[in-house]
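Q: Convert this sequence to structure tokens.
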Amino acid sequence: MKKSSWQPALVLLLAAYPALATPPVTTRDKDKDEKAKPLTVSGCLERTDDDGVYRIKSPAREVEVRGSAGLEKHVGRQVKVTGQWIEDVGPLTGGETEPADRSHLKAGTVKDVARTCDRTR
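A:
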């Protein structure tokens, strides 16, 4: 029986199939894993005009914080908040030309670092 020249190629293809069938890890998948990790932010906790929405201010940044972790009783104090970062871009409303960025830290735990905010830092 005469051997065909395509048979070795078929054997190699079938041997490599499991590796070809596994989807590659993409940057997007890696980003999802990074966002799932808890994030901790420290600074002065402030109340905003919106119910249930707070802000942590530090010299380096300002972060919107939401959640039911008893944030109200920590307003005006230096805190350390740990939670999940939530990417939230809202729809266009009224005369807006860009969607509102409502990304925020969903508070899981809140710990007091100091009883008052030190404004001199």
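The longest strand covers residues 104-114.
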